[in-house]
Every structure is written in structure tokens, then in C-alpha cells.
Amino acid sequence: xxxxPYITCHELLDFLHLYLAGELPDERVHEFERHLxxxxxxxxxxxSYKTATALGKAAWIEGGPDEPVGGSVxxxxxxxILAARGGKAP
Amino acid sequence: xxxxxVSSPEGAPWGSxxxxxxxxxxxxxxxxxxTLVRGHGTRLLAVxxxxxxxxxxxxxxxxxxxxxxxxxxxxxxxxxxxxxWLHRIVVNACLMRLRTRRRKPEAAIEDxxxxxxxxxxxxxxxxxxxxxxxxxxxxxEVRALxxxxxxxxxxxxxxxxxxxxxxxxxxxxxARLLELSENAVKIRLHRARQALRELLDPELSGPVRRSA
Lengths: 90, 212
Prior knowledge:
The complex is a heterodimer. By secondary structure, chain A is an all-alpha fold. Chain A contains 5 helices and no strands. By secondary structure, chain B is an all-alpha fold. The two termini of chain B are 34 Å apart. At the A-B interface, helix 1, helix 2, helix 4 and helix 5 of A face helix 2, helix 3, helix 5, helix 6 and helix 7 of B.
């Protein structure tokens, strides 16, 4: 049986990004998984961290089921850009 | 990044033909410039709104980006699509604005990170989040909540999260644009995600309340 002390929740959460990215050495992965085997709050934290990350990635996706696609570029902005270029405003 | 088809003003001859449009732009054809702005402006404005909190700043950044693109048409080599090239330019225009504008007071990232007690356990871990991202993201009020939470992140962390998680740039490109080390980008992204989680936790932990 492994007699070494467990890493703390603080240590685990500080390096969580490397664990999730598969960038930790095998020995550290073992320490993480040993901790997660006995720590439900950290397991829950990781799930909510992944959910928050996924929500952040998706929060600006246009045209969600209850949201119309975001229209067209405002005419006044088109006119300002073309005028600044020196061409004719539409 | 995704890119939609370029819509031309009525009667414009290019359709989805980028090389023809590019030739007309280089020839100084006014209609071609309008096609470019109308075809890509909506998407570029959406990008700028993710970086810049004010609508005025976002529009100014898009204008800066198009004018910069117009000046650089001769150096566009066509190895990427116009949409990809313009995306890079508007991201740069937004970052330039963020660097030069007067900063407003904002929360310290440490205030938005998890707190720990002396023995290394998390203080007040609270209940688990019960609903999955797939279920939550379907709801308009959750998307609004997430956008508002991202807006509350300190700029130096919010920009990393937007570049990496939303604009889908890789770590190396993000580091280059922000003049940071790749390790610093990884740490900032992790802290930004942790802070986003903390900001959403009061609303999303335990049974989620639904608006009527």
C-alpha cells in the first residue's frame, strides 16, 4: 500500500490545467489520481471547471435555438469604413 | 474560427470567388470594397464585441481593421482565406485598443480564485453542479450569464480566455500576440477558467433555478 502523503486539494487545483492537458509526468498523474480517488469535492470541482470552460467556449455561438443569428453589419459602419477609405459611401 | 459565405451587393459579380474579388479590390473597385465589408463585417464585429466591452470601441476596431486590410491588400499572399486573414487583423486591432485605452479599476484575479484553508482543503466547497454544459448552453439566460461573467474577468485574463477558448488560437500564437511566454498563457488561461467557474458557481451549483 502506498504510504506517501496525499497531495492537497490546493496543489491539485493549481496544476489541474496540466493534468487535464496530459502534460504532467506519470508520477504526478498517479498522485493526482490517488487524491481524486478519495476526494469527492475535487472530483466535483473538476466537473464544474470543465462545464464552465465549455460554457465559456459556447457562450457566443450565434444562433442558439432560442436566439436569432446576429443580423448584418450596420449600414452606418459600412458607410464610415468606405468613406474613410476615400471611396463612395453606399 | 468559422467563416460564412461572402454576400455581394446586388449585381456584384464575385459570389464566392475570392480570387476575383481580390483582383477587383487591388484594382480599386468601389463595389468590391463594399462586398468585402458587407460580407465579413458582421463576423468581424462579433469578434470585436468579444474583446471590447463597448459597442463604440468594437465598431472603431472593425473600422481600423478594414482600413489596415485595405492598405495591406498587396501583401496578402492568398495562402489563407480572406476570412482568416481579416480575423487576424481585427484581433490585432482589438488588442491594440485594449493596450492603449485607459484602464478601469477591475477585480484582482486572486479574489476570483478558489480559497483554501491551512491544511490545503478548499474553503466552502459547496454543492456540485448538477446540469451538464450541453443542457445549460441551450438556455439564453445561461449564455447571458456566462458572457457577463467573462466580462467581469480582469483584462489580462479575459483576453487570454477569449483568444484561446473562443477565437481558438493555439498557445503559441496567443503568446506571440500578447508578448507572453507560453507557460504564462497556460497559467492565465487556467486562472481565467477557474475565475469563470467561481463567478458562475452561485448560479449553477446545486439545483439550477429556471426562469419562467
